[in-house]
Design brief:
The protein has 266 residues and is α/β, with parallel strands linked by helices. It contains eleven helices and eight strands.
Length: 266
């Protein structure tokens, strides 16, 4: 299978690196179409397939087209794919908010995968929600290998669920960074310097997540283990509860999903 990634930005480059590292295809079967000269130079240094900028090259050779461009660039990309589409070729999109119907109408593809990856895919720790249209079992197996090379992949049975994944995992890293930043700023107010605060906060997050992953306890049970009656943890949690913080977080995620739906409608 020859894979052509259209767009050599952060996500396109990460996919290319992971595909090669996972030995899904050899270098000679991976192609990256990119127009930006600086990106081309950077990609050439990575030794991750053939990088090219002439749209008359390599498109015919592709079995899988991966659309790793901004949603607003989709209209300019579709005409490059359409002449090279036949029923067995697969179009995989990581363009946020672009529905399967739009991709089908734009490319005439029969086999389509719509995905929503998140930023930690850049370090192979990502989450990718996806839904397929027209793929057989062998196709799905191969696509799953690609998506699992950058983290975990979760298939959904309704396209509307991609909006939920966008709000949760797609936007989720920003929520985590928001909390890390808030706690780091509080630590600095307590007298720690920026380096000390960052080390303590990041390790606290990492350690807490590892504990959660490696045990069957719920978040509430872990909170009880950390807390003691009249102690420091309870004092902090009381402030969070008085501010209705949990409800505010939920409202934020729901608003993100609503916005994703709005964007999908164009």
């Amino acid at each position: 299978m020859n894979i052509l990634i259209i767009g050599g930005g952060n996500m396109g480059k990460s996919l290319a690196q992971s595909i090669i590292q996972a030995k899904i295809v050899p270098n000679k079967q991976l192609f990256i179409f990119e127009k930006d000269e600086d990106r081309i130079k950077e990609l050439d240094k990575q030794n991750i397939g053939t990088v090219f900028s002439n749209p008359n090259e390599h498109f015919k050779e592709a079995d899988i087209f991966i659309l790793a461009v901004k949603p607003q660039d989709s209209a300019s990309i579709y005409p490059l794919i359409t002449p090279n589409i036949h029923p067995d070729k697969i179009v995989l999109s990581i363009m946020a908010g672009i529905k399967i119907e739009s991709i089908k109408n734009g490319t005439n593809a029969h086999k389509i995968v719509r995905t929503m990856p998140n930023l930690p895919c850049m370090v192979n720790k990502g989450v990718t929600g996806f839904i397929t249209n027209g793929l057989n079992d062998d196709d799905k197996t191969f696509i799953l290998k690609i998506l699992q090379s950058i983290g975990i992949a979760v298939e959904v049975d309704e396209e509307s669920k991609i909006d939920a994944i966008t709000a949760l995992s797609g936007s989720g890293p920003a929520y985590v960074y928001y909390f890390i930043d808030a706690i780091t700023q509080a630590a600095i107010q307590l007298g720690l310097n920026k380096t000390e605060a960052a080390q303590l906060v990041v390790q606290t997050f990492e350690g807490s997540i590892e504990l959660y992953k490696n045990n069957n306890l719920s978040c509430s049970e872990w909170i009880q283990k950390v807390s003691s009656k009249g102690g420091t943890t309870e004092a902090a949690l009381e402030v969070f509860d008085q501010s209705n913080l949990k409800n505010l977080i939920g409202k934020g995620v729901l608003r993100a999903e609503q916005r994703s739906k709005e964007l999908s409608k164009g």
